[in-house]
Amino acid sequence: xTQTASGKRRSKLExxxxxxxxxxxxxxxxxxxxxxxxxxxxxxxxxxxxxxxLLVEGWLNIDGAAPPTRESLAGxxxxxxxxxxxxxxxxxxxxxxxxxxxxxxxxxxxxxALASDPSSRVGAVEAAIRRVQGMDWPVAYGAGMVFNxxxxxxxxxxxxFDKKGVGVWRGHSVQGLEDELSLRL
Length: 185
What we know:
One of its GO terms (molecular function) is oxidoreductase activity. By secondary structure, the chain is an alpha+beta fold. Helices cover 40% and strands 23% of the residues.
């Protein structure tokens, strides 16, 4: 027991309980801020946000072709998929994205995946690609600069750019992306 300035006795347990409550309040506040600042499953319309140059450390899945650029993507709807190999929801979403790509690529929609994983983790990115049947779109690694340019700080995130290269939608689900594209095509 300790004695307070007012002469009341207080146990160490009460002090620890107060500390625990303060810690819980801080965690709850952080969770609330994250929930309120992250778009919902349906996504949100954005714009105007120009498609940036895709400055990354390297590319996979391009089979000797030139990496995608703003110029090569012009005239098509472009989906930038932001992910990382240490993001379980990202890995779980890849099969859905492969089915999405199969349905929409013939309609002029181009998927480009941008992994935050640096070149030191390229093996993990390659392993993720091998595990998903139909994952045949360009995949970048070391894409931190593009994440920063577009203000992406949560994964998975999808950004949809129109045929003029202007960002028009941002969200976190393939279903929300399909809903938005259905309105546009």
